[in-house]
Design a protein that fits this description.
alpha+beta; 37% helix; elongated; Alpha-Beta Plaits; four-stranded antiparallel β-sheet
Length: 97
């Protein structure tokens, strides 16, 4: 199953000004996801906006949350299950035919 994750923190909780804090949080999140068996399809960042975006693949929601644990203290994450748009549209069109 695919999930879109949007993580946001603000300038007060941003670890960017401390290399050790960056390493322990955002530097650790991709390895933590992998260690928990979560496939990272993609990961992107908007540094000035303090926003991170992930597309993750897993059938284990708890593993996803565990993999995000390094960044949980610095902000809030929205986790949404998503599907393939093209396949969904094609299925809907086929149902109406």
């Amino acid at each position: 199953m695919l999930f879109h994750v949007h993580h946001h923190h603000d300038e007060k909780t941003c670890p960017a000004h401390n290399a050790e804090a960056v390493g322990a949080s955002f530097g650790a999140v991709l390895p933590a996801l992998a260690e928990n068996g979560v496939n990272v399809v993609g990961a992107w960042v908007d540094p000035p906006g303090h926003d991170f975006f992930f597309v993750l693949e897993t059938d284990d929601y708890d593993a996803l949350v565990e993999g995000l644990r390094p960044i949980i203290p610095s902000g809030t994450a929205t986790i949404q299950p998503v599907g393939d748009m093209g396949a969904t549209v094609a299925k809907r069109i086929a149902e109406e035919s």
